Amino acid sequence: MQREAERLEGPVREAAALAKKLGLDPYPVNYWIVDYDEMNELIAYGGFQQRYPHWRWGMTYDRQQKQGQFLGGKAFEIVNNDNPAHAFLQISNSLADQKAVITHVEAHSDFFANNEWFGMFTDDPDAAARLARHGETIEEYMQDTDIERAEVEKWIDHILCLEDNIDQHQPYTPLSPDDESSDLDTEEVADELGDLELSEEVRQEVFDDEWLEARREDDDASTFPEEPERDILAFLRKHGRQYDPDAEKAVEMEEWQKEILEILRTEAYYFAPQKMTKVMNEGWASYWESLMMADENFADGNEFITYADHMSKVLGSGGLNPYSLGLQLWKFVENTANRRHVVEELLCIEGITWRNFHDTVDFEAVLSVLEPDDLVASVDPDELDAIDPSDPRIDAEALEAARDGEIDLDAYPWKIFTYEGMCERHYSLTKPENRGFISRISMEELEQISRYMFDDSKYESIEEALSEVDYSVGWDRMREIRESHNDVTFLDEFLTQEFVDEHNYFTYEYMQSSGDYRATSTDYQDVKKKLMLQFTNFGKPTIVVSDGNYRNRNELLLEHRYNGVSLDLEQAKDTLERVFELWGRPVALRTIVKEYDDHDLEVARRRDREPEPTEQGLEIRYNGKEFRREDLEWAEVEHLAATDIDYDTKPEEWLA
């Protein structure tokens, strides 16, 4: 391991330097060399070396190990969101893989450091130490002779069923004992009276039935929360109880239960940004890794084939692939920003308008002018004296070092360039795969660009119009987006019809009439909605606390924000049983379900069309012993149904 660490010192140092040249601003990264088993353990622990004791880590470890043994899966890297970040390199990886991991990690660390959603969690930069403290605290409770270990594990299980039921769009706010509810409900008052062992005469004199009834009437006004609460874990931490099966009633949580609940809530908020930005983050890392490894030859000739083979497998893996989707979207963002800038300049040429753009512009001439000049396209070590150090694209200090033989330009030609030079060197529109991107612009976009142009200056030729083109527009725009967006807003804003057509995206649906799946649409709105359903609220149903004093009995009423996708009712029941343990009293869940009439199904099959479902309100109630289902009138659940999903919400509004 020491030898491997020494071998990688150079690539680590140069990758960090190259990342800065490209305009990235990552956290410092500490790299650790680990073996195969340690890597599997780190993956199971979510990228950290120490977590609280729980069976799910072992389950994840076993699954990861079997994936490697029997399915050919391979773990290349894992990096955590911390300052400094910690990345782990598996000692058995080839040098090509290690270099790929290092460049990938530098980009991840840049994303951690600059995306605002990661900044919402906490000002404490040492996440590894925080999670280690959490593990030690829970371990102490498990070893406490006054607490059964099995009870601690069961309590953790209850909480983990709700770990995604937080308000991830709000900054994390820790809860203190002062945040706990101190109100006594009517049932508790009756219990308190019983504990006082008062005579019936005194009880009736001081706490008569009229007083208790008046309290019940006051309780009618104590419905809470005032607005639906998304952070169910926080609500249960403030107002929840535990159910005592011996006493058959709700009692106060033990201190250890409260602390563990808050610990796991804290960790849910810590990991939320990673879940919210999976496509953006992996796509961002894949983009810069590919540029460094391939375009800047960070993978040398002996390593490139191995790198290309492994990268193609990562991008080509099945299912919803965040690496592939993210990389495609970031490239589309870059190309679109660059194209808009170029088109704005071209529309200032005499005789060119948005109406005649495609017929008038010589696109080959445009691309010829945009090609990086020889100075930045390639570096000849024998011609360094001819380079002007005052050129804004040239790093004068590095140029002087290169002239003195202190820089190996054959291996690191990028060292003599500034950010401006790197932007021109890697300009996206002139790459072979993008050479048709300018000519593909739609008339609608041309008209839109033209409508908001206020520059009346005119050029005589393409050469004149593009003489001072800004090569940094694409990368600058990418960094702006990286700062404020998450996956939902990223997809909403940049997944266009042009993108869908270019990459052949389509939607598919399960057909009730035929019992199979069929392609249904290539419209970008349908593709976008289908994708965003998998990212909104981490792809999980959105459940909120509607009433903590439901039926005026301190029951808990949860509501499902129905978006056209029905709940799995069996899973919903399993979860309600867990919620009951954290509330201590009956819990109810309201939702909307789809029902299909058998006759309509048969008619639909014969006519090869889809039947229209009936949407029905439903309430499931669990009292600790049994479930009760009740159909609801539409008026009682109408507010749960989304007429259309409104994703037109900007990150700055969420972060306000």
From TrEMBL:
InterPro entries: Spore_V_R, SpoVR-like_C, SpoVR_N
Domain SpoVR-like C-terminal, chain residue ranges per copy: 541-592
Superkingdom in the source lineage: Archaea
Domain SpoVR protein-like N-terminal intervals: 5-339, 464-539
Protein name: AbrB family transcriptional regulator
Source organism of this protein record: Halovenus carboxidivorans
